[in-house]
């Protein structure tokens, strides 16, 4: 145990953010560099090393949280990094992007603010990179087997790294021009600078993983031809079919899916554009969808100089504290969350639904018409007399995703079965109905968190390894049927 009285002597203290007026002038991460290390030992000491650490139940990776908390408290960074990497290939990603269900399940959180697990995690990995404790793990021998991984998001990268370290020859195919999937082109720079991806890719290259960018399986290369080249295939193509909003005026110019809008600002940071082809500069922006992707659109619009930003959510505003009756500990509660993007301004409107869009004579969107809604007999129903319109010269749709891409032909060319929710069906070993073809991440699970994607990639890698060799020592932290701890 780190410090038996740590949780009594120290309160919760989190990473400091840079002033809003400063960070809106750049695209760097919002946190003050180096602000965590001076406080993280005390924060780690608050961990009680519980007899039953429920933080393990909150995290699908099975992270050894009390162990690396103890090492961080003692400032044994090498040991902390080893324990951290024992269950997580990319803690610098999860430490920045995960909503931390582990903290919702922290036993201390029953009657005190939970341990800052996420901050401890990112402190350990940042220190490990600084001290050179993150090194390539090159396999001692090669198996002679080959594996193609389609998709380079967190699930694909985790599967590829695990299989490479097991001795297989792995090639990762990515349809975009750079590796990283939505980590690269969906997550804004202010949430995670892309240098973190770049150095992991270099580590994986040194280990032997090969990367093929700009190749879309199904279009540029037939799935059947790919399967002939490799002994096994892992599909980690995500759930990229965005939910649309079929209301009058949807065809107007200036209405875009979030994943049409967000990648362009990332490409500006990569040097591909001087200015993004779709910009919020000087415009009244409306973001439809109250989740993390919507918040990313809000923060991006602020940095592009929007005249105003309004975020709409059809559901009622959540409470600011856990409702112990409906969302008891240690489940992951739905709470009112103020992200760094929301700190920067804008308006959030709950319990409203878009009825239609109105444009100008040139076909550009100018107004969004909405109505308030309420639950009646379990259904969201418009409230009479609440209709109004708000200015909207750029609208982004951030309403989630409905399944994996069917348009590129990959699913049909492989002959894959889908489940009732439009995800690729798989068995207990993550294998699809096609022998030798496996699926990991959102493509098989549906839209989920980054920790679930990495856990799926690690688990699918074990299934592939057993398929190729008959036995595997790779860990499998979750089963395909496991779900988050929620009511």
UniProtKB/TrEMBL annotation:
Q: Could you tell me which residue ranges the 4Fe-4S ferredoxin-type domain spans?
A: 38-69
Name a Pfam family for this protein.
Answer: Pyr_redox_2
The record's annotation in PROSITE patterns points to:
4FE4S_FER_2 (PS51379)
Q: Which SUPFAM superfamilies match?
A: alpha-helical ferredoxin, Nucleotide-binding domain
**Residues that span the membrane, as ranges:** none
Q: Which InterPro entries match?
A: 4Fe4S_Fe-S-bd, DPD_II, FAD/NAD-bd_sf, FAD/NAD-binding_dom, Glut_synth_ssu1, Glutamate_Synthase, Helical_ferredxn
Instruction: Name its pathway.
Output: Amino-acid biosynthesis
- Keywords, comma-separated and alphabetical: Amino-acid biosynthesis, Glutamate biosynthesis, Oxidoreductase
- Gene3D superfamilies given for it? Alpha-helical ferredoxin, FAD/NAD(P)-binding domain
Q: Which NCBIfam families match?
A: GOGAT_sm_gam
Matches recorded under PANTHER family? GLUTAMATE SYNTHASE [NADPH] SMALL CHAIN
How is this protein named in the record? Glutamate synthase subunit beta
């Amino acid at each position: 145990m780190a410090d038996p009285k740590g949780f009594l002597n120290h309160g919760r203290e989190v990473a400091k953010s840079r002033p809003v007026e400063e960070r809106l002038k750049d695209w760097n991460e919002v946190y003050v560099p180096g602000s965590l290390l001076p406080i993280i030992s005390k924060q780690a000491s608050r961990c009680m090393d519980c007899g039953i650490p429920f933080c393990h139940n909150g995290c699908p990776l099975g992270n050894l949280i009390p162990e690396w908390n103890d090492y961080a408290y003692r400032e044994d960074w090498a040991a902390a990094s080893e324990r951290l990497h024992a269950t997580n290939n990319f803690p610098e990603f999860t430490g920045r992007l995960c909503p931390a269900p582990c903290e919702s399940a922290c036993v201390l959180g029953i009657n005190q603010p939970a341990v800052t697990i996420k901050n401890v995690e990112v402190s350990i990995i940042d220190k490990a990179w600084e001290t050179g404790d993150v090194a390539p793990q090159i396999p001692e021998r090669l198996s002679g087997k080959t594996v193609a991984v389609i998709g380079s998001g967190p699930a694909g990268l985790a599967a590829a790294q695990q299989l490479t370290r097991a001795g297989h020859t792995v090639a990762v195919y990515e349809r975009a021009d750079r590796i990283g999937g939505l980590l690269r082109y969906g997550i804004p720079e202010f949430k995670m600078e892309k240098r973190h991806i770049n150095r992991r890719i270099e580590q994986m290259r040194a280990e032997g993983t090969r990367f093929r960018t700009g190749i879309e399986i199904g279009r540029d290369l037939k799935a059947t031809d790919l399967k002939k080249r490799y002994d096994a295939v892992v599909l980690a193509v995500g759930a990229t079919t965005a939910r649309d909003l079929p209301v009058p005026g949807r065809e107007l110019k200036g209405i875009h899916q979030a994943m049409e809008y967000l990648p362009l600002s990332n490409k500006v940071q990569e040097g591909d554009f001087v200015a993004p082809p779709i910009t919020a500069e000087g415009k009244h922006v409306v973001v439809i969808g109250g989740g993390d992707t919507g918040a990313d659109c809000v923060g991006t619009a602020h940095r592009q100089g929007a005249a105003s930003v309004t975020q709409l959510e059809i559901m009622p505003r959540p409470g600011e504290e856990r409702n112990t009756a409906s969302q008891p500990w240690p489940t992951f509660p739905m709470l009112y969350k103020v992200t760094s993007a929301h700190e920067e301004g804008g308006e959030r409107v709950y319990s409203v639904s878009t009825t239609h869009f109105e444009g100008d004579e040139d076909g550009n969107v100018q107004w969004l018409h909405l109505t308030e809604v309420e639950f009646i007999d379990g259904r969201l129903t418009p409230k009479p007399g609440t209709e109004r319109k708000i200015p909207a010269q750029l609208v982004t749709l951030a309403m989630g995703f409905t399944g994996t891409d069917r348009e590129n032909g990959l699913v049909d060319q492989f002959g894959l079965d889908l489940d009732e929710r439009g995800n690729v069906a798989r068995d207990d070993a993550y294998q699809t109905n096609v022998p030798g073809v496996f699926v990991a991440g959102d493509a098989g699970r549906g839209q989920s968190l980054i920790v679930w994607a990495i856990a799926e990639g690690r688990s699918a890698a074990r299934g592939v390894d057993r398929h190729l060799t008959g036995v595997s020592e790779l860990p499998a932290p979750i089963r395909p049927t496991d779900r988050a701890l929620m009511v």
